[in-house]
């Protein structure tokens, strides 16, 4: 699978209802201003929805990190969100994060969330001194390369997530759930320069982002509307809307529950509390659901920064 296919799937804060500033741990308050741009307003909306989803699940939103993914977006837009008080940003491409990081403040916590090739490890670690996390460790080879490079350049231990392919789709990267524990043990015991922090998965893609999937949604809604016009039974409409929910909601629930099960297995084997093992799951299309299912780290791109603008030649 190429990077274009993988990253297309990775597309897919903040006004407290009481008007009290809600902020991520350790970050400066997010200042409200009439001059806030569209991206800042979108960020505030995302943070508010995260706060509400956390409340519904009986958790504190202070323990949920929002990673603003600026893939294909200019430095000026990232700076606008930074100036509003946000500090966690993510990128999918090594070339892009290496180009952006030096142009932005050093207190940004960069997350690399794309597939990482071995030959890109050195430029990533040397080019982004404030790299806070690599979320996509999916085999022992990449773990070993990261561990060796961290030691060679003398930086502090690098925090990592192990990526799990919870859907079984060949188009997605990640270790199979059955191999998750073995890889976590390798990172924890054989890679002293890496700090295992949790598990990551790619959940629901944006089903309306392609003409094919949009047609499916439109067709089901059209049939449902037609059944109303033809005075069909209420049961027919319930069934049609059930199909819509089944196609576009159930998969993520299953995938996220699979990741939570992997965490339980990992924590039991390592003898650690589940609170010590983060879950990175949830993107623009389903981050509220992910938070309700236990996510501690959501990766939000287009909802904050707008539709992506891919160059003719994809970055590596």
Notes on the structure:
The chain is of the alpha/beta class and 316 residues long. Helix content is 44%, strand content 13%. It contains 12 helices and 8 strands. β2, α4 and β3 form a beta-alpha-beta unit. α5 packs across α6.
CA radius of gyration = 20 Å
Shape: globular
What structural class should be given to the helix and strand makeup?
Answer: alpha/beta
Helix content: 40-55%
Biggest sheet, spatial arrangement of strands: 7-6-5-4-3-2-1-8
What's the number of extended β-strand segments?
A: 8
Unreliable stretches, pLDDT < 50, 5 or more residues?
Answer: 1-35, 206-218, 227-231
Give the biggest sheet.
8 strands, parallel
Kindly report how far apart the N and C termini lie: 13 Å
Mean pLDDT: 81
Strand content: 5-15%
Count, helices: 12
H/E element sequence:
HHEHEHEHEHEHEHHHEHEH
Brief overview, please?
This protein has 316 residues and is of the alpha/beta class. The chain contains twelve helices and eight strands. The chain is 44% helix and 13% strand.
